[in-house]
Amino acid sequence: MNLAMPAAMEMHTESEMSPIVFTDLQLASEVQLAVQLKGYTSPTPIQAEIIPLMLAGQDILAQSQTGTGKTAAFALPILSKIDVQLSQTQVLVLAPTRELATQVAQSFESYGCMLPKLRVAAIYGGADYEPQLKMLRRGAHVVVGTPGRVIDHIRRGSLNLESVRCLVLDEADEMLNMGFIDDVGFVLEQVPQPRQTALFSATLPAPIRDIAARYLIDPAQISIRKKTLTADNIEQRCVFVDDNLKLELLTRILESEPTDGVIVFAKTKDATNLIADQLVQRGQRAAALNGDLPQARRQQTVDQLRKGQINVLVATDVAARGLDVQRISHVINYDLPHDGESYVHRIGRTGRAGRKGIAVIFLTPRQRSKLAVIERLTKQTIEIVSPPSASKINHFRVARFEQEIVQTVNGAALKPFESLVQQVMRATGLSAEAIAAAVLHNTSPGRPLFVEEIESWCQSRRSSHDKTSVGRQRDESRRSPRDVAPPRKGMLRYRIEVGRTDGVRVGNIVGAIANEAGLCGNDIGPIEIRQQFTTVDLPSELPSDILKTIGRTWVAGKQLRIRPFFLDQEIAQVGDSSRRETRSAGRNNTQGQLATTKRGRKAFRTGTPKRK
């Protein structure tokens, strides 16, 4: 994404700004006191530049990256000029998401804590109208809202803009990306002149420049950039991994590193739900955050993260926009962001308030070139690291196990159990060690204490039978069953009840499975379309609820009814002259697949990779 500025725009970096303190700025005494109570002494560069201009009533066109302190840059001077004796709405701030709207409204309340009778209203979609209507009827001096809900209130007549004298567009480029640019234009038309307008944007594409040229009057053009777009206190890492091993890698990172709060970024809503559910099954306190959640549930989830009730939040870019939780120690890019700006916004969720942060990005071998693109944008080197080893994971598991045992011994009444152990020892002749080992085994069925080493986390070159092009799949569909290569490592073969006689095509099957299971094309292996049914290779870690969902899916007029594919049960349908030879080969293949299937199910439950 182009970050260049027009030649006429004034450009500053952080190091170029002369050191000043807040008391040098002509803020209202109540606002100065609130700033002092928060412990702030010196403004950030963007605050030092913009506050005097906002106090003078000048229009502002500002380009600023995340984390530069722009909210205070416009909130402090606005609060210094507001008249709390008037009950009308005097300030309107437009924000792209409800999370950012809520955050900005909270900032106004915090900076205005010494202003008596100040009323701030946050209005956004996905929430009940009645509480918002009540706040507006009371007379909110500052209204912060998303474009769609602001327009709804304007049309209802519940939001009166006649007394608005200051309009702020926050993260205007994000409103453009989300398709709100026409809504923004509508709102700007409704706010009467004279007014002060301030537009803040990380980038200035042509539509944003057009908005500025049309609605801003002789604006002061300011750009404050960091020497690097990402904070120096954020350690950035990259791990190369195949798509089908990302969940295993994520689980091992969460187990092997001391973490506080963690945000995992995925590219789709379905992916956030799937990843969060799988992490919960593996013992993590995780939850999803996406646009499908009701607003109350979203706010509850963020509060749980802030309070430490959950440790891992799996989110989409839009849902996490504006999220500010200081305890975030790690940001993990499970899926590649759609551009460099999104990467900057993502990792800006960690390293808050001067704390150290760690940002990790998962890349497949085919995405290697993306690493250089991100490094050029951020002007920082991203360290390529190896996945945590099995020995490291096992060391942490043993340490946790020892700690749990000590806590139980010190805090629980164990006398009845000690008597029971002695009784079993007398009756069976077994040692206490053997009994303890058996109890440990039975209390964690399918989840061994130790994990195994994964030989290769990524394969830069795929074998010929891993190709998933439509033409290749059509050629393979004509082979006899005994000529088909076995599933590759990490995959299982399934049968679905739709075939060539139903007129099904490979694209129909890929689309249906990708939509229902939230998989990408690389996760779907070879597809063999046969006369009455089809086989497809899928990741062995798919949970049962996803398989049930796929099984209920209709393709070509039939339900897929997916189930593991055991070759010797299908031989009766082949009917060729080599029936006996095929049956023998089928039995051997069945035994291998049956063992593979059992190991795959066990691997999913335990987080342990299958043996080769």
Sequence-ordered SSE layout with sheet pairings:
Elements: E1 10-13, H1 29-37, H2 45-55, E2 60-64, H3 70-81, E3 91-94, H4 98-111, E4 120-123, H5 129-138, E5 142-145, H6 147-156, E6 166-169, H7 172-177, H8 181-190, E7 196-201, H9 206-215, E8 220-225, E9 234-240, H10 246-256, E10 261-265, H11 269-281, E11 286-289, H12 295-307, E12 312-315, E13 328-333, H13 340-347, E14 357-363, H14 368-378, E15 383-384, H15 390-411, H16 415-428, H17 432-443, H18 470-476, E16 491-496, H19 506-517, E17 527-529, E18 534-539, H20 544-551, E19 554-555, E20 558-559, E21 563-564, H21 579-606
Parallel strand pairs: 1-8, 2-7, 2-8, 3-5, 3-6, 4-5, 6-7, 9-14, 9-15, 10-12, 10-13, 11-12, 13-14
Antiparallel strand pairs: 16-18, 16-21, 17-18, 19-20
Put the structure in a nutshell.
The protein is of the alpha/beta class and 612 residues long. It has four domains: 10-225, 3-Layer(aba) Sandwich (Rossmann fold), CATH 3.40.50.300; 234-388, P-loop containing nucleotide triphosphate hydrolases (Rossmann fold, 3-Layer(aba) Sandwich); 391-443, no CATH class; 464-606.
